[in-house]
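P.,

For your records, the input lines for the assembly:
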Amino acid sequence: MSKHVVLAFDSIHDVIKAEKIIVRHGIWCDLVPTPRELSSDCGMSIECRNEDLPDLESLRENGALTWRDIYRT
Amino acid sequence: MIYLDNAATSHPKPPEVISAVQHFMVHVGANPGRSGHRLSAQAARIVFDTRQSLAELFGVSDSRQIVFTSNATAGLNIALHGMLGPRDHVVTTSMEHNSVMRTLQHLEQERGVRITVVQADQQGRVDPAAIREALEPKTRLVAINHGSNVVGYVQPIAQIKEAIGKVPLLVDAAQTAGSYPISIERDGVDLLAFSGHKSLLGPQGIGGLYVHPELDLPPLVRGGTGSRSESDRQPDFLPDKYESGTLNTCGIAGLGAGVRFILERGVTTIHNREMDLLEVFLEGLRRIAGVVLYGPSSTKTRLPTVSLNVEGKSPSQVGGLLDKRHDIMVRVGLHCAPNAHRTIGTFPDGTVRFSAGAMSSRDEMEQAVAAIEEIARS
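Structure tokens returned:
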């Protein structure tokens, strides 16, 4: 099972906005260069722990967080 | 030295602005969001934070609608070139700066854009009803100078938007942003260009444009954005759509500190303080024989920008004496707004313009009055 997920966004603005929301909710994340598999997006993406995915999904469902694509490392 | 040329650019800047620029240059320095490393991310956070602060100051709910440009002129060019197609009609006023008038004249020649100029009264006031009367079925845009850089009068943009209904409203807020309350969404503004180095207290070389989410205007410049790199096509999402090429991140860092300086004190507090300074200045000037004051006489709906002439002396003579003998910096002439000077009756000689700012003091205003008194008597 993979350990991390990478969230991809349209623009660096959306990356930083999402980073601030994720950090505010006490969830670990790190900015990483966008993996080749997601290269159609912005040059930076957000890496999160796989175990936090349910929390991220619920943030996405209530509209606090949006991402364009998700990739499992 | 007394600096009263804040309508040209604010000086001095708050120490926080200088620190922010220095911090960026010494400790960050990278290209925001272009590269995957941590300095690039840090630069992107600075850009994001400045955009957020501007959205807070201007009453905008999604900061992506605010794009950075090199100055207000560049923002106005995006708006005017993007909005006005062949034979479209535009309504503007006789108080506009050359940033709007020259661009419109160009579009008239290149695209057959038709321009109606609504005349302001001699105080620089534009009647919203006169703007409504100038509308035609093909009117695509109303372009309004918010605060006059010549006489300081601030036009009622909410009333103007109410008068023009669905016709998009472009506001040139070069003079008002940071020194006069602006609420973009509440007032129904569709496009707003601002300067970053005037009352927003940032360094020169930074400005921006607010674009309403429902407007789809083409960018003026296309190129690298750090996003969708595999595609030959310009991104259609904001802010990237209008931000090709490396941003002035250094300027954006300083601008962010300037906007936070304003948010901490409150734009209304800063404005009221500037109106107190204006009152001191105007009261002193009214007592001097031989001084002709232009523009509104009250401190209501205006900026601390005053145009005057001294009888028997040209504006450049007065400006020269203020600089060389009294150590006071002002701007003389036509202030890039010849139509505004025609409106107030001072074309082609122009006026001597005094413009106070957030860092000006009562003592400086009193010294300026004393200097004008001496020049008027000499």
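Two observations worth noting. The mean pLDDT of chain B is 96. Residues 15-265 of chain B form a domain with the Aspartate Aminotransferase; domain 2 fold (CATH 3.40.640.10).

Regards
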